[in-house]
Specification:
- This protein is an alpha/beta fold.
- Helices cover about 30% and strands about 20% of the residues.
- The chain is built from 11 helices and 12 strands.
- The strands form 2 sheets. An 8-stranded mixed sheet has the order 6-7-8-3-9-10-12-11, sandwiched between helices.
- The longest helix has 18 residues, at about 220-240.
Amino acid sequence: MTAAPEPLAPGAPAPEPSPPDVLVSARGVSKHFATKVVWPAQPGIAPHVRLWRAISRMPATVAAVTEVDLEIQRGETLGLVGESGCGKSTLGRTILRLLEPSAGRIVFDKTDLTQVSQRALRPLRRHMQMIFQDPYASLNPRMTVGTAIAEPLVIHGLAASAREREQRVAELLARVGLRADAARRYPHEFSGGQRQRIGIARALACKPQFIVCDEPISALDVSIQAQIVNLLEDLQDAEQLTYLFISHDLKIVQHICDRVAVMYLGRIVELALAPTLYRTPRHPYTQALLSAVPRIEPKSRRDRIILAGDVPSPIDPPRGCPFHPRCPVKDKPAACFSELPRLRVLDNGARAACHVA
């Protein structure tokens, strides 16, 4: 794990990334999707209703990710947390350019991914991999495990012969705690935890530098989750890997991550070192999330914060702070209702997008 960055003065703007330390940099990254509502044709509908339905069929924009600034340092694990539908997985896929960004700049190892063609991007993909949430869905059921793990080696020309591929597959299986004869079996013959190990082995096949872990343990039994987390930590130390770890489990994130970014309605609302964020959360949304984490020690328990209402629609987000309709802070300033807060440095070194943090 990399050393923690130097703290900044309160109110200071976000600095430009340092090329020797930053592996992945996202600047103003947005991802919007076009959608529309289609109503079935029904005779006898009043004209004003037909007009309203015609308007509703016009394309609308879903702002899944909006103006995200993020830096991931070499060798660190950056956690990304938030409620379902807040844009975590979309951001991870956009950083890898599995989804084309609507705006912004993504730099990986000094290469601007938003400026290169798909053909030029292909050789870079071996250095950027992904571990998916559902290990069974990410594996072709008609392929043997050995064929699935060897596929990246074939695509990128990293093995000169079939014999070399077999040796590499056996080595990868051993690295993730599986026997070599697993290469001849099919995904349905394995448990969920074993299938996730296979997915990890496939991600490691090309010896990547950066891996997006998209909720890699959420589909597993609790007894297996710790084994997968320990495996990821061991592989990080051995291979000098950099992780973007997306998860709902705040306890696991606290254990494995160096820094944590909190996401709400497509925006980063707080970013801090993991010990700082868990000890002194400053954004009201972060405080509400952490208040729901079960704790054994009575002195460390927080009063549960219940947020009112539902998450606003990303098609029509609220004006001002996106969180203000659910914010539990009383006597909010007028800026909360009219001005979009920007990430700013607080006195504890964290960054929060909040007018009252």
